Amino acid sequence: MNHYQAYLTGYQIVADTDEEDFDLVHFEKQLMADYKLKKRWCSSRSALCFLTLVEGDPNSLHVYLKYRQQLAVRSESQTLANEHRKDWDLEELLSVRGAIRRRPKMYLGNDAGSGHVWSLISGARWAEKDHPRETGEGWATRFMREFQIKIEQCNPCSRGVPWHRTLWFNCLCAHDISLSGFFSCFTCFQSGGISDDGDDDDE
After folding, report:
1. What is the pTM of this model?
2. Which domain, by its residues, includes 135?
3. Is residue 146 part of a domain?
4. pLDDT single digits (tens) 185-194
5. Which residues pair with 72 in a beta bridge?
6. Total of domains in the chain
């Protein structure tokens, strides 16, 4: 579920699309009615966690997609969010002082790891294909290729393995540490290189 949300976020950041308006408040109310719940959650993320808990994974994603299809509506809050998103830049959001770097769980979920960043950037990459803004490759497409090369240079045994899996393995499958590892590598990548240990400071 969180991987889908991350992918969708990346796609929408690049595409600036509101083709599928989906009011999370309406979704939460419908979910409570369907499952006969009386107490509201503190956030829409909690509603998604509940759906994953009761339906399991990956079935929860199929159920959620049905809700998205059935409850597609236009709300003022969603329209304002889409208008605000037009000013977003994914590279900036992932940078040291970017919103995703400062609040990763808000954008990627409570179990956020390097794989969720992969989903986020993958969504952006496909949006670049569907909604091209310029000739040639977009930032996300170039990044996925060039970052993969850099990670493989530091980890020769991982050639052909997607970079998020390499970071996850290097951190002994700990999601939070793999996320920190990605941000460290991302900062080094922006400055022109990645160290072999990936432990450079973000500041």
Report:
1. 0.74
2. 89-203
3. yes
4. 999 999 886 6
5. 22
6. 2
pLDDT in tens, 62-82: 998 898 888 876 544 444 444
User: With contact defined as beta carbons under 8 Å apart, do 3 and 113 qualify?
Assistant: no
168's tokens = 């996850």
Query: Are residues 193 and 145 part of one domain?
Result: yes
Q: Are residues 53 and 153 in the same domain?
A: no
Neighbours of 46 (CB within 10 A): 13
Q: At what angle do helices 175-191 and 139-154 cross, to 10 degrees?
A: 100
Residue 189 tokens, joined: 């990548």
Note whether residue 60 is domain-resident: yes
Closest CA to 146 of 112, 196, 188, 90: 188
Give the tokens for residue 68.
Answer: 């998205």
Helix boundaries (H) for 56-173: 59-70, 76-85, 90-94, 99-102, 104-108, 114-130, 139-154, 163-170
Average pLDDT over residues 142-167: 93
